[in-house]
Amino acid sequence: MRAAISHKFGRDYQLGTQPWLEHPTMPGRFIGNPSLSVTISQYMIRAGEAVMSARAMDEPTMKRLWEFAWSMDRKEFGLISRKRKAENPSEWAGFLLRKMLYLLYLLSMLCLLRYDEALRITWADITFQVSYQPAQFRVKLELPFRKTHQYGGIAPFYIYADPDRPWMCLLQAFAIWWLLAHERHRDLNGFIFHKKIGTLDSFLECFRNNLLDISVDPRPYGTHSFHWGRCQFLHTVRGWSFRKICDWGGWAENFDNPGTIFKYLLSWNDNPAEAREHYMNPNRPGCDPCYSCGRTCHCG
Fold it and tell me: What is the mean pLDDT of residues 281-292?
């Protein structure tokens, strides 16, 4: 409800997404979005609806999901009764649905997309491209819609292979799902993702079941987990600057809400990356080797 009201004030009344605050040079006059005032936030907390951010999806969890998907036998399950679900919880989905879900996870995470934006993508929006100087293969993704660009002007995403991190390789995920989809449908001219996950409730059910497959508590996670996770992955693992992250995510036009990028990069609900006792420890254990230079130090 609050999100709908915030959108109404921000979009229809053009009040933006800044918090509702008193004007610094004009006492008595307020600026910003009334729905984002401190008073309303305090009321929601008193009412038992504390605003809780989703935990960011991290690379180790994505790797475990990827490994579990490939460990599945390639068999499909028909309609599953409640009794069968209760007796065999792991049989909530088959191989194809799991591979489709993984593509949706990775696409949302790597391209900083919202759940509804990813679901609107069709095969016509995907172009497989080959460059011969040097020999290179890539995918060009042209989004038909973005919440931040509702009147067009959406920059395309260019996706390359990541052989060092196959669990984070979106190009590979696209290629695998293209082959699997071709086995079932000769002509691919519709939406990439099946209608089975077309609603928020159905997607969250599948996502939570998927996390339970790898013994991860699904309660802290939500649809924004991939959005948050990619910002942190790009900054802490890839070493991207804030400007580059904003440009990739389509946020670099006006920077009308600079707090958004910080909110994505840091949340109290995230898994700690390192034990506090090792922050200043000169002999702390090394991290995973860099795939480019091989270094294991923490200064990258």
Answer: 68
**How much is the pLDDT for 296?**
61
DSSP three-state, residue 17: coil
Is the distance from CB of 207 to CB of 221 less than 8 angstroms? yes
Q: Pick the residue with more confidence: 35 or 46? A: 35
Length of the chain: 300
What is the C-alpha separation between 162 and 202, in angstroms, rounded?
30
120 phi/psi in degrees, rounded to 5 = -80, -5
Predicted TM-score (pTM) of this structure: 0.68
Predicted confidence band at 229 (pLDDT cuts at 50, 70, 90)?
A: confident
Place of tokens 């995230």: 270
262: tokens are: 């910080």
Query: Nearest 5°: CA angle at 179, between 135 and 159?
Result: 40
Q: CA–CA separation, 228 vs 62, rounded Å?
A: 13
DSSP state letter for 140: E
Which residues partner with 191 through β-bridges?
122
How many other C-beta atoms can be found within 10 angstroms of the C-beta atom of residue 167? Answer: 20
CA angle 98, 207, 1 (to 5 degrees): 145
The string of pLDDT tens digits covering residues 85-112 is 666 666 777 788 888 999 999 998 888 8
Residue owning tokens 């996670």 = 221
Helices (H), the chain: 2-7, 38-46, 59-71, 82-87, 95-110, 115-119, 170-184, 200-213, 225-232, 242-249, 259-265
Dist. CA 29–CA 244, nearest whole Å = 36
Please report where in the chains the tokens 């610094």 appear, as a residue: 24
| Interatomic CA distance for residues 291 and 286, integer angstroms | 14
Position 12 pLDDT exceeds 90: no
Query: In the chain, pLDDT over 70 holds for what percent of residues?
Result: 68
